[in-house]
Design brief:
The structure holds two protein chains of two kinds. By secondary structure, chain A is of the alpha/beta class. Chain A is built from twelve helices and 14 strands. The chains are: A alpha/beta, B alpha/beta.
Chain lengths: 334, 326
Amino acid sequence: MSSNNNRELSYSLAINEAITQLMDADSTVMLIGQGVKSPWYVGNTCNDLIKRFGEERVIDTPVSENAMTGAAVGAAIAGMKAMVVHPRADFVLYAFDPIINQAANWHYMSGGQSNVPVVFWLIVNRGGEQAAQHSQALHSVFAHIPGLKVVMPSTAYDAKGLMIASINDNNPVVFSDDRWLYSQKGIVPEELYEIPMGKGIVRNEGKDITLVSYSYMAVESAKAVGELKKESVSVEFIDLRTIKPFDEDLIINSVKKTGKLVVADGSWKTNSFASEIISSVNEKAFEFLKAPSARVCLPDTPAPSASSLENVYYPDYKNIIDAIKSVLKWKKEK
Amino acid sequence: MDFSKELLKKLYCTMLRIRHCEESLIEPILDGSVRCPVHLYSGQEAIAAGVCSNLEEKDYVFGNHRSHGHYLAKGGDMNAMVAEIYGKSTGSAKGRGGSMHLIDVENGIMGVAPIVAGTISLALGAALSSKVKKDNRVTVTFFGDGATGEGVLYESLNFASLKKLPVIFVCENNYYSTHLHISEIRTNDNISEIAKPFGMACFKVDGNNIFDVYEKSKEAVNLCRGGKGPVFMEFLTYRLRGHVGPDDNVQGSHTDIRPKEEIENWRKKDPLIFLSSYLLKNNIFSQQQLDEMKKEVEKEVSAAKAFAVNSEKPSKEELNYYVFKQ
């Protein structure tokens, strides 16, 4: 394969390429899920997979989330590298038993005798007046569970590399993406490559404050960083890419330098993964903190339908800028 | 059908191994040396023995909370099982699983789990993998009558039938779902009927009659092996012990679940007595030969117990081993 170092691909086609190339290279990779035949469900992420690999390895399924997720887990237990896609992350709530009771615990409760190389691919589909049951981002819930890894790429490059790393991982991985990212374009190498799990990346070096984000909120964070630059605020922006395990050292070292922290997370504020990051900074870098840390999250409210409500429900770069400014302004009361 | 002397001995010894191993756990449960929840299989041995003796080593089995019998019948190591029940590091899951998480991948015991109906869909996936790999394996999932209340069973029946998967759904109907009689959880007890609308072969079998169990299981395995799966099997049986531990759940004792006469009636249909009477009556084995088999089994069971008792508990430094596979 001739490598074109400047080829641009959309986020969704980067996922498609990752799956296609890996299925080509490894006959044990299989994909199960509702709508893998249909762009209506999964965008163009599954283009031509059935045509290339057949209906035994790429299975569009009845609406049976619990059994289909369990089937992916069982296939992985029996030696396949199985993926199951839930085209609306909300649908996975029917499948907590195979994910949490079975897959996440399996390696531990078998004393290491059996492992589950399965990917639970959840597409967050917020916005578009779809309301509470077609919009939920559940990554913070999964990050709570021992035995699960959770990845949240924000760029096309990371989407391909993390999808490949997820499928090749020996453990159950929740791959959480967001339809709002699907049209994002970026440079994507043509060859197979992995982004190491648990490694974040500094997208912008800065000295005034540390901003941590992942998945779609990283896009809003990048915008905020650009705007603040114009006002001479220097933000160190970390795209975490994986939240479980997460790159704690990268964050701690940054906070040691800046002394201030904002986390932008696309899930609800209470018990969001943002809270976990702030706790860990409190535990490990308390003496370096010069101000209380802040979270930019969804309000503790189900997703509304009406666009007038959606507009205030979903935080964007302006909310991130506000949070950063208020942390920077904070002064200890005498 | 012709049952060779060799096969009859194998079936009898398998059932005997299960029964003796199960009953040997009562004392250590009562004296506190076994602490994990233990769901005894006594009374249901013919099903595990009859089904598993039709399977090859490569075939897959998934079980539930009451799976000591499935594990032993499929060839699982008794020492590792008993040590696991004692919570020892020499156990099949190194003391991370206990009685409800037995596993022996080498012998095709892919895993057992106490979430009711929790491994049924896993069996679907294992069967799917066999289709992709064309390895001609058959997968069996064992569950109880209580699992018929779980939606995932019906999802799995539909999908298995849709994809013609080589999977056998084995429902061991022992008439009790924990503390509730089947009449309190279903409008009828015709469990085998539930699979008919999905267009698969369904068998209703006397689960205490080893001959019926063996023959019907053979038919089911052959159907799956020949690409004519899936198959649903309902075995009628009775657990001689209570839901968990040695408590027999007898009415009039501190629990108020099972009438004494019901238990007495089923004792008369004990699958081990049924088979041993047959073997004696037809002069296949003498009483002395049966006694020798029993002695052998008792030896194995006491050796397994000694192995477990003499093994170490996992050390506290190992708490977080095996959360992830590296």
